[in-house]
Backbone:
C-alpha cells in the first residue's frame, strides 16, 4: 500500500463545487491521490461520480475550488492540455473511432494525446496492444469488438497517451465475473508499473482487490474516505450505498 503520509500528491482537489441551475452535483469536494496509489470511488447512482471525473479531466469546469496535478494548477486547462500533462481517462461507455482499426485508435491516442512522433506512436501502440491482450485484434474495426475487448481498448487508448494518472469510469461494468477478473489482472500489472489510478466502480469486489483507499460520495459530497475495510464497515456507507441498516 502506498504510504500517503510521506509522498507528495500527484492530484489534489480543494473545495471543488459544481452546480447545474438548482442542482448541486459536486459540493466542496477535497481529496488527494498519491504517486502509485489507487483511489477507488463508490457511490449510489446519481451521486455525482462521473461529474467528478469530468471535473478532473476538464470536460466540465468547476464553479468553485482548485484542481492541481503534479503541483500545477490545472483548473482552467482544457481536456487535451490535461491529457498532455499526463492524465489519461476511460469512459463508462466506450467511445472508439468505430471505423478505424484498434491499432489506428491507439496510434491516434499516442500522437495527439501523448504528443509522440508517428514512429514513436507505432511503437507505443504495439506495446499497449500486447499489454492489454489486444494484439490479435489490432487490425479489426474498433466498432466490431465484443464488450470485453471494447473495454480493453478503452483502457488501451488511455494507456497510449502515457499517463501518470489513469481515470477509470466503471471499466468492469457489464462484464462477466471471469472477464472482470481478467481486467483486474491487467490493472494490477499497470499499478505495479507505478501508474496512479482513480477508479469509479460498482463491481465492488473488483475495486477492493486493487484500491489502497476508498472515497464514497453521495449527493455530490464526500460521505467517507479511508482504508477500504474501514470504509466498507462504516454504518452510514452501509446504509446509503448498500441499503443495509447497522
Residues:
Amino acid at each position: 500500500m502506498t504510504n500517503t503520509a510521506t509522498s507528495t500528491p500527484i492530484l489534489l482537489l480543494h473545495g471543488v463545487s459544481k452546480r447545474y441551475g438548482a442542482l448541486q452535483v459536486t459540493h466542496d469536494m477535497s481529496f488527494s491521490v498519491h504517486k502509485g496509489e489507487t483511489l477507488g470511488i463508490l457511490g449510489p447512482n446519481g451521486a455525482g461520480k462521473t461529474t467528478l471525473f469530468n471535473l478532473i479531466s476538464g470536460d466540465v469546469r468547476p464553479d468553485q475550488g482548485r484542481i492541481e496535478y503534479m503541483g500545477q494548477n490545472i483548473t482552467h486547462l482544457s481536456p487535451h492540455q490535461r491529457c498532455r500533462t499526463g492524465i489519461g481517462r476511460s469512459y463508462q461507455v466506450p467511445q472508439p473511432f468505430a471505423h478505424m482499426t484498434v491499432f489506428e485508435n491507439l496510434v491516434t491516442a499516442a500522437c495527439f494525446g501523448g504528443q509522440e512522433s508517428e514512429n514513436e506512436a507505432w511503437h507505443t501502440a504495439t506495446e499497449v496492444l500486447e499489454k492489454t491482450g489486444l494484439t490479435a485484434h489490432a487490425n479489426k474495426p474498433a466498432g466490431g469488438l465484443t464488450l470485453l475487448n471494447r473495454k480493453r481498448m478503452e483502457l488501451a487508448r488511455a494507456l497510449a497517451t502515457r499517463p501518470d494518472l489513469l481515470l477509470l469510469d466503471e471499466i468492469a461494468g457489464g462484464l462477466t465475473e471471469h472477464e472482470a477478473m481478467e481486467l483486474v489482472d491487467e490493472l494490477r500489472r499497470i499499478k505495479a508499473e507505478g501508474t496512479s489510478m482513480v477508479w469509479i466502480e460498482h463491481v465492488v469486489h473488483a475495486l477492493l482487490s486493487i484500491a489502497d483507499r476508498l472515497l464514497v460520495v453521495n449527493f455530490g459530497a464526500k460521505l467517507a474516505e479511508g482504508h477500504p475495510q474501514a470504509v466498507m464497515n462504516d454504518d452510514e456507507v452501509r446504509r446509503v450505498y448498500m441499503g443495509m441498516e447497522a
About this structure: The two ends are 29 Å apart (CA to CA).
